[in-house]
Design goal:
Shape: globular
Number of helices: 3
Helix content: 10-25%
Radius of gyration: 15 Å
């Protein structure tokens, strides 16, 4: 499971020119799944996202978490996080989890975040989406949880 987490001042996601998700201060999460991902990876990354200290404290130091600042999340499914570009010029997506399985994990991930009383706005799984946001900082961090057999 991979997440690109981007600190934002505001963000929205559009599908067919309609806003389907919108937040103010918080994190934009691009979320991708691969074969073998399960609730273990979800639990680990939910904890990481909620407690990642990427928001400024009173001294301007990134020392506060999403929970500390009362921030929101814009969660967008992103199978292209598992693009393999080692051969040729066209990315291969064979490492990305198929849609039927990925959508279940994506919903589980978002529900787990919401269980912490965090506002989670979402894109539409599998849709053509346009994301508009102000990356604050900019702060962009790659989060990943590999399965134990993959060599954590």
């Amino acid at each position: 499971m991979r997440i690109v987490a981007q600190r934002c001042r505001k963000a929205s996601v559009l599908v067919e020119d309609k806003i389907v998700g919108k937040i103010d201060q918080g994190l934009v999460l691009l979320v991708g799944f691969t074969q073998g991902d399960s609730s273990i990876e979800i639990d680990y990354l939910v904890d990481k996202v909620l407690h990642l200290r990427v928001f400024d404290d009173e001294f301007g130091v990134m020392n506060r978490s999403l929970l500390d600042v009362g921030g929101s999340i814009l969660s967008v499914s992103q199978f292209t996080l598992y693009a393999d570009t080692k051969k040729g010029r066209r990315p291969s997506y064979v490492k990305a989890l198929n849609g039927e399985q990925a959508i279940k994990l994506y919903h589980q991930f978002n529900q787990k975040l919401e269980s912490y009383s965090v506002l989670v706005e979402k894109g539409i799984f599998g849709a053509d989406m346009q994301i508009d946001f102000v990356n604050d900082g900019p702060v962009t961090i790659l989060l990943e949880k590999e399965r134990e057999e993959d060599g954590e």
